[in-house]
Specification:
Radius of gyration: 23 Å
Structural class: alpha+beta
Strand order of the largest sheet: 6-5-4-7-8
Largest sheet: 5 strands, mixed
Order of helices and strands: HHEEEHHHEEEHEEEEHH
Number of helices: 8
CATH class of the largest domain: Alpha Beta
Number of strands: 10
Helix content: 25-40%
CATH superfamily of the largest domain: Ribonuclease H-like superfamily/Ribonuclease H
């Protein structure tokens, strides 16, 4: 476990009940005091009981849940925080069945919580900046493990799998990944141009699909074919570690992800 990650015992000591969780979330969401989610007013707010507030400007009654992923949920806030903890610390993912047992809710509720948490983690509109590690991978079962009537019998390797491109910002660890129709130069480089800020440095392996990206970014690479996986300042080990965790999570939680739903996992 990372030194920056607290233990489960510490988490329970910090958030023993819903009230402590509410106060913590309010301090993160409203560092300068309660703010109306509709008109962003902070000056004309009246505090009420039970974590409720009233905006005297637009007459809205609200809580820390309003206009967040917690809205219209009756799950106690300390259970939400514990679910967040489990989701980000479970290296191989956590299923809705397991989460339901851990936080004491139904499987349907756990599924709902995981869906909202994953939605909150995605759709980041900001682009990546700095040194960006880029790599592609293929998601899907091995041909040799499939029933005979499902085998494509068109070769090995990427046959029957879905291509995914990933970009990792080395300084922050932020990652953007998406399914792609193929791994041609146009497809790979279009994805990079859409998600990486100008002036960044791109680091890849020797895949020919990245040839020409140096017209837009400084480009350096390692040659896996030559047995090179890292040299001072240049590596794709970070994004490859992301793939390792992703595949273990898919295997442990979903077992199989069809191309139709892969982008939402």
């Amino acid at each position: 476990m990372s030194k920056s990650t607290i233990s489960t015992l510490q988490l329970f000591e910090m958030f023993p009940d819903q009230e402590t969780a509410r106060l913590y979330l309010e301090s993160r969401l409203w560092p300068q005091g309660a703010t109306c989610p509709t008109c962003s007013n902070r000056d004309r707010i009246t505090t009420r009981k039970g974590g409720f507030y009233r905006c005297n400007q637009c007459k809205l009654d609200f809580t820390v849940r309003t206009a967040t992923i917690f809205e219209r949920s009756h799950v106690p806030l300390h259970k939400w925080i514990y679910a967040m903890y489990l989701l980000v610390t479970s290296r191989k993912g956590i299923s809705s069945m397991q989460l339901a047992k851990e936080i004491g809710v139904t499987q349907k509720t756990a599924w709902f919580i995981l869906g909202r948490l994953r939605e909150a983690c995605g759709n980041d509109p900001t682009v990546l900046l700095g040194i960006i590690e880029v790599d592609e991978c293929y998601i899907g079962g091995k041909e040799s493990n499939k029933h005979d009537h499902k085998k494509l019998k068109a070769g090995r390797g990427a046959v029957g799998k879905t291509a995914v491109i990933g970009m990792r910002e080395r300084s922050s660890g932020r990652v953007k990944a998406m399914t792609i129709p193929n791994t041609t130069s146009n497809t790979l480089q279009s994805a990079i141009l859409d998600n990486v800020a100008a002036g960044s440095e791109i680091q890849t392996d020797e895949h020919t699909g990245y040839t020409g990206i140096e017209d837009h970014f400084y480009h350096d690479m390692v040659s896996h074919a030559m047995g090179e996986y890292s040299r001072p300042g240049v590596t794709t080990n970070g994004i490859e570690s992301v793939w390792a965790v992703l595949k273990r999570g898919l295997h442990g939680v979903y077992h199989h992800a069809s191309p139709k739903h892969l982008g939402t996992c």
